[in-house]
Design a protein that fits this description.
There is one protein chain. The protein is α/β, with parallel strands linked by helices and 363 residues long. The protein has a single domain, classed as Leucine-rich repeat, LRR (right-handed beta-alpha superhelix). Helix content is 17%, strand content 21%. The chain contains 7 helices and 15 strands. The protein has helices spanning 4-12, 20-31, 46-50, 59-68, 93-108, 292-295, 322-325, and strands at residues 35-37, 41-45, 75-81, 113-119, 133-137, 152-157, 176-182, 200-202, 222-224, 245-247, 268-270, 286-291, 305-311, 331-337, 353-356. The longest helix is centred in the N-terminal third of the chain and has 16 residues, at 93-108. Residues 16-34 and 50-57 have low confidence and may be disordered.
Length: 363
């Protein structure tokens, strides 16, 4: 009887296009809290599913499959945590059921991104699952255990100890590699170690090796460094000609190296909080800086948007010639206006968005 509401929902879910997310998630939360669902993505707790002793003909499986086939879904996240064995092995009936559901769903819905999140479990192989996205938390894995179909890989905690892409084991279709929250990883990146398809690379806090020429793939669009990185990025071939976003905002130590001779494709830069170098890059369109003094005095002829965390200029200071420095600026954000700002010097004919905030601690 406890499954009757799920059967009913499974029958009518396809006819409730406008309110299916609200009704479905409310009823399922009351019953067993297995699902987290909105109009475009769903999270399913595999561990709860496995603990219910399902059989191959169980109607709960059909409820899962009906849910997964909602037309509006574009992402499905399967979540599994604190298990001693792989949830996708053939050791137990429940694990075969879970694997069968994922395999069937992937076969039917090639238009949906499938992500698996595993949290603090024993190492296991995922080669047999055609996943497109994988998030690994506090589970040690080797690259040769990962599916070759991956396009998005996120690793968190004590998950990675080996250098990147030993013997070409990383998926050659990988587009996003997010290891910014991996602990204790600090290996150099060598030419050819990253897939030629990679578009986004976020490196961990302990990474502190020079970027050698041609070490990064020519497909890379976004590059982010962690807290301890302290090496120049000015030399020929260090940054690929495809790069559009450079994120140094997590760097904590004073960064003294100039940002000059950058790829012309680079249009967005997030500066370190304690930037002590010189920046000059005329193709720049979007700039994020912690303090106005970091960028004062430099011309940005093509800049469209500027975001500053703190502005400390006062009435006795020489106000920056905004119209000269930023003739094409359309958006200005100051998150903490510590001193008065003379807006009469701004390029008002170009400005479309202006947000000036003052922290109450200065009152």
């Amino acid at each position: 009887m406890d499954q009757l509401p799920l059967i009913i929902i499974g029958k009518i879910v396809g006819y409730l296009e406008l309110i299916v997310d609200r009704m479905f998630v409310t009823l399922l939360y009351i019953i067993n809290n297995n699902f987290i669902l909105n109009r475009r993505q769903i999270t399913i707790d595999i561990q709860t599913f496995a603990q219910q002793g399902l059989t191959p003909d169980d109607l709960k499986r059909q409820a899962y499959l009906r849910t997964l086939n909602i037309d509006s879904l574009r992402k499905v996240n399967f979540r599994y945590s604190m298990g001693r064995t792989s949830p996708f092995s053939d050791m137990k009936q429940q694990e075969r059921e879970i694997k069968g559901i994922i395999d069937q769903f992937i076969d039917q819905r090639s238009d949906v991104k499938v992500n698996l999140s595993v949290i603090r479990i024993e190492p296991f192989s995922l080669l047999h699952l055609p996943l497109t996205s994988l998030s690994i938390y506090d589970t040690t894995v080797n690259f040769d255990q990962l599916p070759i179909t991956l396009t998005h890989l996120k690793m968190v905690g004590n998950t990675l100890t080996q250098p990147l892409n030993i013997n070409g084991q990383l998926s050659m279709s990988l587009k996003i590699l997010d290891i910014k929250n991996v602990h204790n990883w600090n290996h150099p990146i060598t030419p050819g170690s990253l897939p030629s398809t990679l578009e986004k690379l976020l490196l961990p806090n302990l990474f502190n090796h020079p970027i050698t020429a041609d070490a990064l793939p020519s497909s890379l669009l976004t590059l982010g460094f962690g807290e301890t990185f302290h090496h120049p990025l000015n030399y020929t071939g260090q940054l690929p000609p495809s790069l559009t976003i450079l994120d140094l905002s997590r760097v904590r130590e004073p960064y003294i190296y100039p940002l000059l001779s950058l790829p012309t494709s680079l249009t967005t830069i997030y500066l370190p909080r304690l930037y002590r170098g010189v920046i000059y890059h005329t193709p720049l369109l979007h700039l994020y800086a912690y303090d106005w003094t970091i960028i004062a005095g430099t011309q940005y002829p093509n800049l469209k948007s500027l975001s500053i965390n703190t502005y400390k200029y006062g009435n006795n200071d020489l106000e920056p010639p905004w119209t000269t420095l930023f003739p094409n600026m359309e958006k200005l954000i100051v998150k903490d206006l510590m001193k008065p700002l003379d807006i009469s010097t701004m390029p008002m004919s170009q400005l479309r968005h202006c947000s000036l905030l003052r922290n109450v601690r200065h009152e």
